[in-house]
Sequence to fold (262 residues):
Amino acid sequence: MSPHAVHLRKAVSSLMDSEYAHLNECYDNEIWPADTMAKIKALGVVGMNIKGYGSLGLTTIEAAAIAFEMCKRDSAVGGFFIVHNCISMKTIADLGDEE
Amino acid sequence: LPPGIAMEKLIGFGLTEPLNGSDASSIQTRAEKVEGGWILNGQKRWIGGAVGGDVIIWAKNIVDQNRVQAFYVERDSRGFIATKIKGKYAVRPGINADIKIDNVFVPDRNKLTHAKDFATGTAMILGSSRLLIAWQAAAVATSAYEAALAYCLKRTQFGKPIA
Fold:
């Protein structure tokens, strides 16, 4: 992993630790933690392994290690992040065209 | 992609249906060609991020030998209704949706050009995504192990720690 990806992984891990009590409350009450997602976005990890278009262009391992830190504290947050970035946007990147 | 990376748009992956989960190549959602675009009909279930987001809908193209192809459906499209599934046992905060697709019009530009069939389109994406999903499962297992370990190390019975 690149030094920047290692830094991002640690930043995500630290954020998820600080959000843990709030995430558990959201879990109990079936509430989407939009505020936590905004904090994750602010860390600059959105895009993950998409290449170009302002994305970080992480390797698969780097993206997976960051997703691991999210999923460890909340599988819903991490799972959504994987779907949005590494499945849905990857579908557009790989199977769409410039138009 | 830029609005997705800015998270101005959330994007779901609409493959699973009420009657087709692992048997995804047999999905029943259909796409029919009309002037300027496509009309989609069908249902999807368990679609993550689909309440309040746009969704890539996989459908059988009836004018191309029922091949499974991909259509980008914007959330405010008429006939597109995504309802949050409540009362889940796990992944409870997740916004998985039941989706009804009733004569939804998708413009030509929103059809993903290179999604030509299930094997080279859908399966290719599923293949690469499995790596990430495996890490998700490993993370949950790691978290459960660490929680159990922490508990065992502080729990005492018969006057002494159990571990």
Observations:
- Chain A is about 70% helix and 0% strand.
- The two ends of chain A are 33 Å apart (CA to CA).
